[in-house]
Amino acid sequence: MTSTLLTGIGELVSFAGSDLPDVIEQAALLIDGSTVAWVGRALDAPDADEQVDLGGRTVIPGFVDSHSHLVFAGDRAAEFAARMAGEPYAAGGIRTTVAATRAATDEQLTAHVARLVQEMRRQGTTTVEIKSGYGLTTRDEARSLAIARQFTEETTFLGAHVVPDGDPAAYVDLVTGPMLDAAAPYARWIDVFCETGAFDADQARTVLAAGAARGLLPRLHANQLGHGPGVKLAAELGLHAVDHCTYLDDSDVDALRDSGTIATLLPGVEFSTRQPYPDARRLLDAGVLVALASDCNPGSSFTSSLPFCIALAVREMGMTPLEALRAATVTGAAALGRADIGTLAPGQRADLVVVDAPSHVHVAYRPGVPLIAQTWVAGRQ
Ligand code: NIG
Ligand code: FE
Predict the structure, then answer these.
(1) CATH 3.20.20.140 region(s) of the chain?
(2) 295 is annotated as contributing to ligand binding
(3) pTM surpassing 0.90?
(4) Which residues line ligand 1 (CB under 6 A)?
(5) Beta strands in the chain, from DSSP E residues, in sequence order
Protein backbone atom coordinates (compact mmCIF):
# COMPACT_ATOMS: atom_id res chain seq x y z
CA MET A 1 0.00 0.00 0.00
CA THR A 2 1.29 3.46 -0.87
CA SER A 3 1.46 6.12 1.80
CA THR A 4 0.97 9.77 0.86
CA LEU A 5 1.83 12.68 3.10
CA LEU A 6 -0.24 15.81 2.52
CA THR A 7 1.94 18.63 3.75
CA GLY A 8 1.95 22.42 3.55
CA ILE A 9 -1.54 22.48 5.07
CA GLY A 10 -2.08 26.01 6.41
CA GLU A 11 -5.02 24.90 8.51
CA LEU A 12 -6.47 21.44 9.08
CA VAL A 13 -9.90 20.89 10.60
CA SER A 14 -9.88 17.45 12.23
CA PHE A 15 -13.00 17.19 14.46
CA ALA A 16 -11.15 14.16 15.82
CA GLY A 17 -11.98 14.93 19.45
CA SER A 18 -10.05 13.99 22.60
CA ASP A 19 -6.32 14.44 22.03
CA LEU A 20 -6.35 16.41 18.74
CA PRO A 21 -7.61 20.00 18.55
CA ASP A 22 -10.43 20.73 16.10
CA VAL A 23 -8.21 23.12 14.14
CA ILE A 24 -4.47 22.49 13.64
CA GLU A 25 -2.25 25.11 12.00
CA GLN A 26 0.80 24.26 9.85
CA ALA A 27 -0.41 20.68 9.66
CA ALA A 28 0.24 17.47 7.77
CA LEU A 29 -1.83 14.34 7.19
CA LEU A 30 -0.67 10.87 6.23
CA ILE A 31 -2.87 8.65 4.08
CA ASP A 32 -2.13 4.92 4.00
CA GLY A 33 -4.19 3.17 1.36
CA SER A 34 -7.77 4.22 1.96
CA THR A 35 -7.43 5.46 5.53
CA VAL A 36 -5.91 8.30 7.52
CA ALA A 37 -2.79 7.01 9.26
CA TRP A 38 -1.58 10.12 11.06
CA VAL A 39 -2.62 13.77 11.61
CA GLY A 40 -0.64 16.48 13.35
CA ARG A 41 1.78 19.37 13.09
CA ALA A 42 3.93 19.36 9.96
CA LEU A 43 7.09 19.52 12.09
CA ASP A 44 6.29 16.11 13.57
CA ALA A 45 5.22 14.41 10.33
CA PRO A 46 6.38 10.83 9.66
CA ASP A 47 8.02 9.72 6.39
CA ALA A 48 5.91 8.59 3.46
CA ASP A 49 6.30 7.06 -0.03
CA GLU A 50 4.96 10.25 -1.63
CA GLN A 51 4.47 13.86 -0.58
CA VAL A 52 1.91 16.38 -1.84
CA ASP A 53 2.55 20.03 -0.90
CA LEU A 54 -0.76 21.90 -0.55
CA GLY A 55 0.89 25.32 -0.49
CA GLY A 56 -0.81 26.67 2.64
CA ARG A 57 -4.35 25.64 1.69
CA THR A 58 -6.96 24.35 4.15
CA VAL A 59 -7.94 20.70 4.61
CA ILE A 60 -11.31 19.72 6.09
CA PRO A 61 -13.16 16.39 6.33
CA GLY A 62 -15.22 15.56 3.24
CA PHE A 63 -18.81 16.70 3.49
CA VAL A 64 -21.43 14.13 4.49
CA ASP A 65 -24.72 15.05 2.81
CA SER A 66 -27.16 13.00 4.89
CA HIS A 67 -30.34 13.98 3.01
CA SER A 68 -30.96 14.13 -0.74
CA HIS A 69 -33.54 13.06 -3.30
CA LEU A 70 -31.41 12.59 -6.42
CA VAL A 71 -33.49 9.99 -8.29
CA PHE A 72 -35.89 12.02 -10.38
CA ALA A 73 -36.49 13.28 -13.90
CA GLY A 74 -37.40 16.72 -15.18
CA ASP A 75 -37.25 19.89 -13.14
CA ARG A 76 -39.66 22.41 -11.62
CA ALA A 77 -38.05 25.65 -12.74
CA ALA A 78 -41.44 27.11 -13.66
CA GLU A 79 -42.72 26.35 -10.15
CA PHE A 80 -39.65 28.08 -8.68
CA ALA A 81 -40.16 31.13 -10.88
CA ALA A 82 -43.83 31.33 -9.86
CA ARG A 83 -42.80 31.06 -6.21
CA MET A 84 -40.36 33.90 -6.57
CA ALA A 85 -43.29 35.88 -7.98
CA GLY A 86 -45.33 35.18 -4.84
CA GLU A 87 -46.84 31.68 -5.07
CA PRO A 88 -46.40 29.62 -1.87
CA TYR A 89 -44.55 26.28 -1.82
CA ALA A 90 -46.91 23.28 -1.73
CA ALA A 91 -45.94 19.64 -1.26
CA GLY A 92 -48.39 18.76 -4.07
CA GLY A 93 -45.70 19.73 -6.58
CA ILE A 94 -44.06 16.40 -5.75
CA ARG A 95 -46.62 14.73 -8.05
CA THR A 96 -45.27 16.67 -11.07
CA THR A 97 -41.88 15.06 -10.49
CA VAL A 98 -43.48 11.65 -9.87
CA ALA A 99 -45.05 11.74 -13.33
CA ALA A 100 -41.74 12.69 -15.00
CA THR A 101 -39.82 10.05 -13.04
CA ARG A 102 -42.22 7.25 -13.94
CA ALA A 103 -41.89 8.18 -17.61
CA ALA A 104 -38.08 8.14 -17.59
CA THR A 105 -35.97 5.12 -18.51
CA ASP A 106 -33.51 3.53 -16.08
CA GLU A 107 -30.69 4.87 -18.24
CA GLN A 108 -32.02 8.42 -18.08
CA LEU A 109 -32.47 8.27 -14.31
CA THR A 110 -29.03 6.75 -13.79
CA ALA A 111 -27.33 9.37 -15.95
CA HIS A 112 -29.10 12.13 -14.06
CA VAL A 113 -28.06 10.79 -10.64
CA ALA A 114 -24.49 10.43 -11.92
CA ARG A 115 -24.47 14.05 -12.98
CA LEU A 116 -25.76 15.28 -9.61
CA VAL A 117 -23.32 13.09 -7.66
CA GLN A 118 -20.52 14.51 -9.81
CA GLU A 119 -21.71 18.05 -8.98
CA MET A 120 -21.60 17.11 -5.31
CA ARG A 121 -18.08 15.69 -5.56
CA ARG A 122 -16.84 18.88 -7.15
CA GLN A 123 -18.26 20.75 -4.17
CA GLY A 124 -16.62 18.52 -1.58
CA THR A 125 -19.28 15.93 -0.76
CA THR A 126 -17.69 12.53 -0.17
CA THR A 127 -20.72 10.66 1.20
CA VAL A 128 -24.30 11.18 0.09
CA GLU A 129 -27.55 9.64 1.25
CA ILE A 130 -30.07 9.21 -1.59
CA LYS A 131 -33.81 8.67 -1.16
CA SER A 132 -36.44 7.24 -3.43
CA GLY A 133 -39.85 8.90 -3.27
CA TYR A 134 -40.60 10.05 -6.82
CA GLY A 135 -41.72 6.64 -8.06
CA LEU A 136 -44.53 5.79 -5.61
CA THR A 137 -45.37 2.50 -7.33
CA THR A 138 -43.74 -0.79 -6.35
CA ARG A 139 -41.81 -0.93 -9.62
CA ASP A 140 -40.72 2.70 -9.60
CA GLU A 141 -39.65 2.79 -5.95
CA ALA A 142 -37.63 -0.43 -6.35
CA ARG A 143 -35.87 0.79 -9.49
CA SER A 144 -35.19 4.21 -7.95
CA LEU A 145 -33.43 2.50 -5.04
CA ALA A 146 -31.58 0.06 -7.29
CA ILE A 147 -30.23 3.08 -9.20
CA ALA A 148 -29.37 4.97 -6.00
CA ARG A 149 -27.50 1.88 -4.76
CA GLN A 150 -25.08 2.18 -7.66
CA PHE A 151 -23.86 5.46 -6.12
CA THR A 152 -24.07 5.00 -2.35
CA GLU A 153 -24.71 2.54 0.44
CA GLU A 154 -26.79 5.19 2.21
CA THR A 155 -30.09 4.59 0.41
CA THR A 156 -33.49 5.41 1.85
CA PHE A 157 -36.93 4.07 0.95
CA LEU A 158 -39.35 7.02 0.91
CA GLY A 159 -42.46 5.39 -0.54
CA ALA A 160 -44.33 7.45 2.07
CA HIS A 161 -43.48 10.77 0.40
CA VAL A 162 -47.04 11.72 -0.58
CA VAL A 163 -50.13 9.68 -1.44
CA PRO A 164 -49.94 9.64 -5.27
CA ASP A 165 -53.68 9.06 -5.78
CA GLY A 166 -56.64 7.19 -4.31
CA ASP A 167 -57.27 6.11 -0.75
CA PRO A 168 -54.52 7.00 1.79
CA ALA A 169 -55.14 3.87 3.91
CA ALA A 170 -54.79 1.62 0.86
CA TYR A 171 -51.58 3.44 -0.10
CA VAL A 172 -50.09 2.90 3.39
CA ASP A 173 -50.93 -0.81 2.99
CA LEU A 174 -49.07 -0.84 -0.32
CA VAL A 175 -46.05 0.99 1.13
CA THR A 176 -45.82 -1.37 4.11
CA GLY A 177 -46.53 -4.47 2.01
CA PRO A 178 -45.49 -5.20 -1.58
CA MET A 179 -43.61 -1.92 -2.08
CA LEU A 180 -41.53 -2.47 1.06
CA ASP A 181 -40.82 -6.06 -0.04
CA ALA A 182 -39.50 -4.80 -3.38
CA ALA A 183 -37.58 -1.83 -1.94
CA ALA A 184 -36.00 -3.35 1.16
CA PRO A 185 -33.18 -5.24 -0.62
CA TYR A 186 -31.83 -1.93 -1.93
CA ALA A 187 -32.39 0.29 1.12
CA ARG A 188 -30.61 0.87 4.41
CA TRP A 189 -33.11 3.42 5.76
CA ILE A 190 -36.84 4.09 5.70
CA ASP A 191 -38.29 7.60 5.82
CA VAL A 192 -41.74 9.23 5.96
CA PHE A 193 -42.79 12.79 5.11
CA CYS A 194 -44.76 13.47 8.32
CA GLU A 195 -46.59 16.69 7.57
CA THR A 196 -50.11 18.02 6.98
CA GLY A 197 -50.90 17.05 3.37
CA ALA A 198 -48.58 14.05 3.46
CA PHE A 199 -48.67 11.47 6.32
CA ASP A 200 -49.86 11.89 9.91
CA ALA A 201 -48.10 10.58 13.01
CA ASP A 202 -50.05 7.30 13.15
CA GLN A 203 -49.32 6.55 9.50
CA ALA A 204 -45.65 7.47 10.03
CA ARG A 205 -45.43 5.14 13.02
CA THR A 206 -46.97 2.30 10.97
CA VAL A 207 -44.59 2.78 8.04
CA LEU A 208 -41.46 3.08 10.21
CA ALA A 209 -42.45 -0.01 12.24
CA ALA A 210 -42.95 -2.05 9.05
CA GLY A 211 -39.53 -0.92 7.79
CA ALA A 212 -37.85 -1.66 11.11
CA ALA A 213 -39.34 -5.17 11.03
CA ARG A 214 -37.49 -5.62 7.71
CA GLY A 215 -34.23 -4.34 9.20
CA LEU A 216 -34.43 -0.82 7.80
CA LEU A 217 -33.32 2.08 10.01
CA PRO A 218 -36.03 4.72 10.54
CA ARG A 219 -35.76 8.48 9.92
CA LEU A 220 -38.31 11.24 9.36
CA HIS A 221 -39.07 14.45 7.47
CA ALA A 222 -40.88 16.60 10.05
CA ASN A 223 -41.98 20.11 11.01
CA GLN A 224 -41.02 21.53 7.60
CA LEU A 225 -44.16 23.43 6.66
CA GLY A 226 -45.62 24.02 10.11
CA HIS A 227 -45.75 22.83 13.71
CA GLY A 228 -46.67 19.15 13.99
CA PRO A 229 -46.12 15.85 15.76
CA GLY A 230 -43.16 14.54 13.71
CA VAL A 231 -40.26 15.83 15.78
CA LYS A 232 -41.71 14.45 19.02
CA LEU A 233 -42.38 11.12 17.31
CA ALA A 234 -38.74 11.00 16.16
CA ALA A 235 -37.55 11.72 19.70
CA GLU A 236 -39.91 9.13 21.19
CA LEU A 237 -38.66 6.47 18.76
CA GLY A 238 -35.04 7.48 19.44
CA LEU A 239 -34.26 8.00 15.74
CA HIS A 240 -30.73 8.86 14.65
CA ALA A 241 -32.03 12.04 13.02
CA VAL A 242 -35.13 14.01 12.14
CA ASP A 243 -34.90 16.30 9.14
CA HIS A 244 -36.13 19.87 8.42
CA CYS A 245 -37.11 20.97 12.01
CA THR A 246 -38.11 24.43 10.78
CA TYR A 247 -41.11 24.95 13.07
CA LEU A 248 -40.29 23.90 16.64
CA ASP A 249 -41.87 24.81 19.95
CA ASP A 250 -39.96 24.59 23.23
CA SER A 251 -41.24 21.09 23.97
CA ASP A 252 -39.88 19.88 20.59
CA VAL A 253 -36.46 21.30 21.44
CA ASP A 254 -36.56 19.65 24.88
CA ALA A 255 -37.57 16.33 23.31
CA LEU A 256 -34.65 16.48 20.85
CA ARG A 257 -32.18 17.32 23.61
CA ASP A 258 -33.43 14.52 25.87
CA SER A 259 -33.48 11.86 23.14
CA GLY A 260 -30.17 12.81 21.51
CA THR A 261 -31.90 12.71 18.11
CA ILE A 262 -29.98 14.88 15.65
CA ALA A 263 -31.86 17.80 14.07
CA THR A 264 -30.83 17.87 10.41
CA LEU A 265 -31.44 21.36 9.07
CA LEU A 266 -31.85 21.91 5.32
CA PRO A 267 -31.46 25.64 4.65
CA GLY A 268 -31.55 25.20 0.88
CA VAL A 269 -35.27 24.58 1.40
CA GLU A 270 -35.93 27.85 3.19
CA PHE A 271 -33.82 29.67 0.59
CA SER A 272 -35.88 28.21 -2.24
CA THR A 273 -39.31 28.32 -0.60
CA ARG A 274 -38.91 31.69 1.15
CA GLN A 275 -39.90 30.26 4.49
CA PRO A 276 -38.21 31.32 7.72
CA TYR A 277 -34.89 29.58 8.37
CA PRO A 278 -34.74 27.09 11.26
CA ASP A 279 -33.10 28.53 14.36
CA ALA A 280 -29.88 26.56 14.64
CA ARG A 281 -28.58 28.79 17.45
CA ARG A 282 -31.55 27.97 19.65
CA LEU A 283 -31.00 24.25 19.09
CA LEU A 284 -27.25 24.36 19.72
CA ASP A 285 -27.68 26.49 22.85
CA ALA A 286 -30.23 23.97 24.14
CA GLY A 287 -27.73 21.14 23.65
CA VAL A 288 -29.30 19.60 20.54
CA LEU A 289 -26.96 18.11 17.93
CA VAL A 290 -27.38 19.85 14.56
CA ALA A 291 -26.51 18.47 11.12
CA LEU A 292 -26.71 20.29 7.78
CA ALA A 293 -27.67 18.66 4.50
CA SER A 294 -28.66 19.81 1.01
CA ASP A 295 -32.05 18.05 0.59
CA CYS A 296 -31.15 18.27 -3.12
CA ASN A 297 -34.48 17.78 -4.99
CA PRO A 298 -36.22 19.53 -7.87
CA GLY A 299 -39.01 21.06 -5.76
CA SER A 300 -37.92 22.57 -2.47
CA SER A 301 -34.12 22.79 -2.77
CA PHE A 302 -32.38 22.27 -6.09
CA THR A 303 -28.85 22.78 -4.81
CA SER A 304 -26.18 20.10 -4.58
CA SER A 305 -23.82 22.40 -2.70
CA LEU A 306 -23.00 21.94 0.96
CA PRO A 307 -20.71 25.02 0.89
CA PHE A 308 -23.82 27.02 -0.07
CA CYS A 309 -25.83 25.45 2.79
CA ILE A 310 -22.98 26.21 5.19
CA ALA A 311 -22.95 29.85 4.08
CA LEU A 312 -26.73 30.06 4.66
CA ALA A 313 -26.44 28.44 8.08
CA VAL A 314 -23.80 30.94 9.14
CA ARG A 315 -25.48 34.01 7.69
CA GLU A 316 -29.11 33.17 8.48
CA MET A 317 -29.20 30.59 11.27
CA GLY A 318 -26.72 31.81 13.87
CA MET A 319 -24.05 29.14 13.43
CA THR A 320 -20.34 29.92 13.58
CA PRO A 321 -18.33 28.82 10.52
CA LEU A 322 -16.76 26.00 12.57
CA GLU A 323 -20.16 24.84 13.90
CA ALA A 324 -21.56 24.77 10.37
CA LEU A 325 -18.58 22.74 9.11
CA ARG A 326 -19.03 20.31 11.99
CA ALA A 327 -22.73 19.99 11.13
CA ALA A 328 -21.92 19.16 7.48
CA THR A 329 -19.25 16.58 8.35
CA VAL A 330 -19.10 14.74 11.66
CA THR A 331 -22.69 15.38 12.72
CA GLY A 332 -23.94 14.50 9.22
CA ALA A 333 -22.03 11.24 9.59
CA ALA A 334 -23.67 10.63 12.99
CA ALA A 335 -27.07 11.30 11.40
CA LEU A 336 -26.26 8.30 9.18
CA GLY A 337 -25.02 6.26 12.14
CA ARG A 338 -21.48 6.38 10.74
CA ALA A 339 -18.36 6.73 12.89
CA ASP A 340 -15.85 5.93 10.11
CA ILE A 341 -16.29 9.21 8.21
CA GLY A 342 -16.72 12.92 8.99
CA THR A 343 -13.50 13.42 10.97
CA LEU A 344 -9.81 13.36 10.13
CA ALA A 345 -8.18 11.10 12.69
CA PRO A 346 -6.06 7.94 12.45
CA GLY A 347 -8.17 5.00 11.30
CA GLN A 348 -10.86 7.08 9.60
CA ARG A 349 -11.63 6.67 5.91
CA ALA A 350 -9.47 9.20 4.09
CA ASP A 351 -12.32 11.40 2.82
CA LEU A 352 -11.15 14.99 2.72
CA VAL A 353 -11.42 18.26 0.91
CA VAL A 354 -8.69 20.75 0.01
CA VAL A 355 -10.09 24.28 0.21
CA ASP A 356 -8.26 26.90 -1.83
CA ALA A 357 -8.22 29.39 1.06
CA PRO A 358 -6.12 30.13 4.14
CA SER A 359 -8.79 29.08 6.68
CA HIS A 360 -12.03 27.15 7.02
CA VAL A 361 -13.90 30.43 7.62
CA HIS A 362 -13.66 31.15 3.88
CA VAL A 363 -16.15 28.35 3.10
CA ALA A 364 -18.91 30.55 4.59
CA TYR A 365 -17.20 33.90 4.01
CA ARG A 366 -16.95 33.48 0.20
CA PRO A 367 -20.36 32.11 -0.80
CA GLY A 368 -20.78 31.02 -4.40
CA VAL A 369 -17.03 30.91 -5.01
CA PRO A 370 -15.62 27.54 -6.18
CA LEU A 371 -13.02 27.12 -3.42
CA ILE A 372 -13.08 23.32 -3.36
CA ALA A 373 -9.77 22.50 -5.08
CA GLN A 374 -9.58 18.75 -4.46
CA THR A 375 -11.91 16.05 -3.14
CA TRP A 376 -10.34 12.80 -1.86
CA VAL A 377 -12.50 9.73 -1.28
CA ALA A 378 -11.02 6.70 0.53
CA GLY A 379 -7.51 8.00 -0.06
CA ARG A 380 -7.91 8.74 -3.77
CA GLN A 381 -8.25 12.13 -5.38
O1 NIG B 1 -37.52 17.23 1.57
N2 NIG B 1 -40.46 17.45 2.22
C3 NIG B 1 -40.67 16.60 1.37
N4 NIG B 1 -39.94 16.30 0.33
C5 NIG B 1 -38.97 17.16 -0.27
C6 NIG B 1 -39.55 18.08 -1.26
C7 NIG B 1 -39.97 17.36 -2.44
C8 NIG B 1 -40.46 18.19 -3.58
O9 NIG B 1 -40.98 19.33 -3.44
O10 NIG B 1 -40.33 17.65 -4.69
C11 NIG B 1 -38.20 17.90 0.81
O12 NIG B 1 -38.27 19.12 0.90
FE1 FE C 1 -36.24 15.80 1.84
Answers:
(1) 63-336
(2) yes
(3) yes
(4) 93-94, 97, 193, 221, 224, 269, 295, 297-300
(5) 3-13, 23-32, 35-41, 50-53, 58-61, 63-65, 125-128, 130-131, 155-160, 189-194, 217-222, 241-244, 262-265, 290-292, 352-355, 372-376
